[in-house]
């Protein structure tokens, strides 16, 4: 089974799979709707608070100041991030050469003259190479005269390899269903890569190699080394594509934050003037217009913070599930591994 990044249901949608703009709208609307039960269950408390126009104006003023400050911070960080991308031609050439060198090295594992150029196809090719090496290991064991246990006792090595290949095949098929989709976006590709259990596969094959070393031929040991190399190439590619995703995610965050912040500043400024001038009066269905108006202005004023929250939640979830850069299994996966050690 693959790791379930971000949980499931609404939680997974909020943290991982949901479009960040849709998540932002959902959270802002939830903030606004949440005020209505408060006004119904606490008529004596909420309505008088929003009826104090000076308090409403002060609150909106504070939020307006926060929005302006947040815009300044985001723009400053964006400028700093952009400046880091400006480097001499020599450094840019090193980055390009390293990328080409990695592609050429991967082609030896993929048994291809030219590796795929699309990230999703590239990762799919590596996972297929992992599965192919695992199947070749099983075939090499099937063709060798290993020491067999007596009577009806099952072959420990053969059984372990068969089980390992089945797990790799299941994992590869599940992940490649996403990677093979034509409409897979950058994050969809990265999410599929995150849910591929490369660390568990690497650990298992090394454990099998250690446990049955005396039963493995040189050919099988060489195939195991190639399988380990393929898994390491997968990790390297995943980390590289993760860095590309983070760059794009930060760019989208900056753009969406600017799009939201400027209208928010204008609308909230007019809302403050409307409250001060007592332009909003009257009631409807037991709810004062000032409550509805102030709630809308309050929710709108929080929108830039919600945009930042929506993006940071997903980036933090990705970072949490890629916290290690090596073949280690963390958190809830540790218990499963410890039972095998």
TrEMBL record:
Keywords associated with the record: Membrane, Transmembrane, Transmembrane helix
Domain of life of the source: Archaea
Ranges that cross the membrane: 21-38, 58-81, 258-275, 287-313
Entries under InterPro entries matching the protein: DUF7972
A Pfam family this chain is assigned to: DUF7972
Native source organism of the sequence: Halosegnis longus
Protein name according to UniProt: DUF4239 domain-containing protein
């Amino acid at each position: 089974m693959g790791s379930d990044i971000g949980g499931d249901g609404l939680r997974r949608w909020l943290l991982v799979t949901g479009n960040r703009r849709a998540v932002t709208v959902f959270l802002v609307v939830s903030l606004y709707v949440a005020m209505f039960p408060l006004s119904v269950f606490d008529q004596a408390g909420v309505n008088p608070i929003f009826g104090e126009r000076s308090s409403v104006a002060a609150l909106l003023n504070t939020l307006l100041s926060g929005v302006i400050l947040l815009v300044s911070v985001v723009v400053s960080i964006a400028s700093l991030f952009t400046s880091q991308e400006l480097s001499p031609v020599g450094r840019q050439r090193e980055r390009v050469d390293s990328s080409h060198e990695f592609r050429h090295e991967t082609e030896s594992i993929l048994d291809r003259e030219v590796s795929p150029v699309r990230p999703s196809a590239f990762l799919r090719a590596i996972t297929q190479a992992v599965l192919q090496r695992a199947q070749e290991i099983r075939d090499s064991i099937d063709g060798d005269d290993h020491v067999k246990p007596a009577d009806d006792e099952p072959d420990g090595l053969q059984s372990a390899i068969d089980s390992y290949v089945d797990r790799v095949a299941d994992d590869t098929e599940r992940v490649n269903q996403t990677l093979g989709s034509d409409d897979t976006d950058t994050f969809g590709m990265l999410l599929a890569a995150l849910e591929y259990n490369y660390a568990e596969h690497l650990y298992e094959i090394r454990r099998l190699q250690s446990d049955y070393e005396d039963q493995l031929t040189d050919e099988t040991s060489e195939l195991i080394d190639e399988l380990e190399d393929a898994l390491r190439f997968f990790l390297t590619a995943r980390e590289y594509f993760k860095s590309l995703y983070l760059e794009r995610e930060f760019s989208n965050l900056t753009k969406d934050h600017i799009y939201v912040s400027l209208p928010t500043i204008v609308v909230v400024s007019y809302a403050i003037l409307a409250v001060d001038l007592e332009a909003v009066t009257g009631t409807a269905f037991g709810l004062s217009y000032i409550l509805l108006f102030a709630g809308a202005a309050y929710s709108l004023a929080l929108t830039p913070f919600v945009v930042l929250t929506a993006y940071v939640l997903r980036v933090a979830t990705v970072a949490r599930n890629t916290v290690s850069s090596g073949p280690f299994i963390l958190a809830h996966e540790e218990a499963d591994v410890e039972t095998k050690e």
